Amino acid sequence: MQASVDIEALNQQIHLDSAFLEQINEATSKIIVGQDRMLQRLLLGLLAKGHVLLEGLPGLAKTLSIKTLASAIDAKFNRIQFTPDLLPADILGTMIFNLSKNEFTVRKGPIFANFILADEINRAPAKVQSALLESMQEKQVTIGKETYKLDEPFLVLATQNPIEQEGTYPLPEAQVDRFMLKVNIGYPNKEEERQIIKRTISGETEQKVEAVVSPDVILKGRKLVKKIYMDEKIENYILDIVFATRNPSDYNLNSLKPLISYGGSPRASINLALASKAQAFLNRRGFVIPDDVRNVCSDVMRHRIGLTYEAEAENITQENIIEKIIGTIEVP
């Protein structure tokens, strides 16, 4: 009885304190058309303290979306174009000699912002990728002898081009695993693209988005996300999904065994739980339901499942495997 009263109180609190989501959606919708799902995933990553890897063709508003979201939250935004000649110091910063003071001083790099767009992350060598991913994991940067904490909220949006692989350095599986979500971005439909043309021609997309919330509101939202109730049955549901990628035979999924070379790591379980809580918050609810888990499952899991040569030969994707698992695991 006590638990149900607490959940009801939490539900009411989150319904009230999540009102800022409508303000953000209203502000971003004035600029962005046809990428509602991408904006929702950016918000989800922001509220769950997880970074996002986007894979999509050029021209699908990836840069514009994160820049617009940063403006709506009154946060600092930096874009880093990854190239083969990029150095770690170009991202993190370096020590420079100050002639007037006769000493070395720190010049901070573009990583010192709230929103970082790592454009075409797979175009830079592994050393540069590691420098960025270390900052993502530790939320700090060491330059010389000093360590500097990164400002919160801190979100990295990395992009990859799925069709142009010449001159690229694919992210190793261990590094890709650091991203909470991997989101595949598709084309807008015909009506959405008609609106994009009209807005671009009229100059509406060049308008500056007014800040509607402060970063403090996002930090408060993160605390509420942690409080969202998750029943033990939902926890077991998440574990079953992740463990089915490791040992499919235990879940009557024998057909998947020759298709999966490795399954989700413990980060998969952690991030699936966090993302499900954030999804419940986006739905302005104080508790997680199975639909929340199913909603975020593909984006959390698709980069954490390795395919065998047999799967690739049969044109079977991670999405096919996730759909099969979700369709088989019993829903609580």
Summarize the entry for a quick read.
The protein is of the alpha/beta class and 332 residues long.
Structural notes for this entry:
- It is built from 14 helices and eleven strands.
- With 332 residues, it is α/β, with parallel strands linked by helices.
- The protein has two domains: 202 residues, 3-Layer(aba) Sandwich (Rossmann fold), CATH 3.40.50; 100 residues, Helicase, Ruva Protein, domain 3.
- Strand 6 and strand 7 form a beta hairpin.
- Helix 9 packs across helix 11, helix 10 crosses helix 11 and helix 11 crosses helix 12.
- The two termini are 21 Å apart.
* Order of strands, widest sheet: 2-5-8-1-9
Task: Count up the helices.
Answer: 14
Fourth-tier CATH superfamily name of the largest domain: P-loop containing nucleotide triphosphate hydrolases
The end-to-end distance, rounded to whole angstroms, is 21 Å
Question: What's the overall average pLDDT, rounded?
Answer: 85
- State the CATH architecture of the largest domain: 3-Layer(aba) Sandwich
Structural class: alpha/beta
What is the top-level CATH class of the largest domain?
Answer: Alpha Beta
SSE string, helices as H and strands as E: HHHEHEHEEEHEEEHEHHHEHHEHH
Provide the CATH topology of the largest domain: Rossmann fold
Task: Compute the CA-based radius of gyration.
Answer: 21 Å
Strands, total number: 11
Portion in helices: 40-55%
What is the beta-strand fraction?
A: 5-15%
Give the uncertain stretches in residue-range form. none
Largest sheet data: 5 strands, parallel
Shape: globular
